[in-house]
Amino acid sequence: MFFERHEGGERAILVHLDSQNTEASEDPQEFQELALSAGADTVAFFSVPNSRPTAKFLIGSGKVEELRDQVKAHEADLVIFNHVLTPSQERNLERMFECRVLDRTGLILDIFAQRARTHEGKLQVELAQLDHMSTRLVRGWTHLERQKGGIGLRGPGETQLETDRRLLRVRIRQIKQKLEKVRSQREQARRGRKRADIPSVSLVGYTNAGKSTLFNALTESEVYAADQLFATLDPTLRRLQLDDLGPVVLADTVGFIRHLPHKLVEAFRATLEESSNSDLLLHVIDSHEPERDAQIEQVLEVLGEIGAQDLPVLEVYNKLDLLEGVEPQIQRNADGRPERVWLSARDGRGLPLLKQAIAELLGDDLFVATLRLPQRLARLRAQFFELGAVLQESYAEDGSSLLQVRIPRVELNRLVSREGLQPVEFIEQHTLQ
């Protein structure tokens, strides 16, 4: 029951509400980019003062008349509002304009419907669409006022509207059950990675900040990346090998946006949990964006909604190629820990610095020391070399190997345990002071 959409090219009039309240107002340029991403052909753009919103139309009746004339003049198929409309406002405006009316939430849902590729992504979009549509069913079936009747079935029966609502409730329940299964499968996969002590890193950030381009550059993948909003919808996981640390799992996730509809946050909770269960978040920021501070605040707000506000974060200022006089660099806090990295995912400048910063933040528990290994532990010595953990080797007078190693402590403990030794005792007995 996935909702189909038009192929694009619909003639649309955009209506932006210019509010005095900066917190409630939307970005008009972002609104136009959203409409473009949805495939709309914008024929007119109106900025309407929203000092006194009305319950019937949201905007004043005079503006409604003006917009109606423009709809007829441009033969528009669609009017899109950069604001959330109530179901009654949407119906009233459609009667006046005699064409479809869409609000900001419906527009974002439509974009998500285009981008969904995996079975899980389509289920999540459909859930959000059904939830949004359930409040917008109208009595358009008066010719079928009573569905049931006849011998043995006489009585009030069930209206078409009630049937539709019942079918929606059934479908919503089915989708939630399927998504719960997906959620448990993801959790099982995460537990497997935890048992293998493989750290997980998630890319988060405002939509169109360059997350997928960075993901491709780091992992040499071919994830779809484009200069448009919500180019990525389905999460993608890849293995990334880091010097001095070993393998990590890198996740590319859906981008956030100002006033992201709560229906989408709830529907995509299974996907967003990939971020909330990560060991490190890479907050990708468009360094060239004039509104980047507001975008950063919005991302932090969504991270709070999914319970990821307390996770370690490394800020990645991307699109350095669009700035003049700024070189790739790692900025550190007072303790010397990496705090932000400036780079360009497009031309690759600064990528080694990002890998270094990730390794530093995830490698807090690295074991760096010189070990004395007697000949009876030759197999353990070979495993250190196989992992690339040996920085230098020399020999003691008794023939023991003196290995200067750099290895995650969990990996060291695993190797030592395989040899039937106690990790703590081994480290105490074999580490040179």
From TrEMBL:
GO molecular function: GTP binding; GTPase activity; guanosine tetraphosphate binding; metal ion binding; ribosome binding
Alphabetical UniProt keywords: Coiled coil, Cytoplasm, GTP-binding, Magnesium, Metal-binding, Nucleotide-binding
Cofactor: Mg(2+)
NCBIfam families in the record: GTP_HflX (TIGR03156), PRK11058.1 (NF008280)
Function: GTPase that associates with the 50S ribosomal subunit and may have a role during protein synthesis or ribosome biogenesis.
UniProt name for this protein: GTPase HflX
Localisation per UniProt entry: Cytoplasm
GO CC annotation terms, alphabetical: cytoplasm
Coiled-coil annotated spans: 165-192
Subunit architecture: Monomer. Associates with the 50S ribosomal subunit.
Location, primary (coarse class): cytoplasm
Binding annotation for GTP: 205-212, 230-234, 252-255, 318-321, 344-346
Domain of life: Bacteria
Residues binding Mg(2+): 212, 232
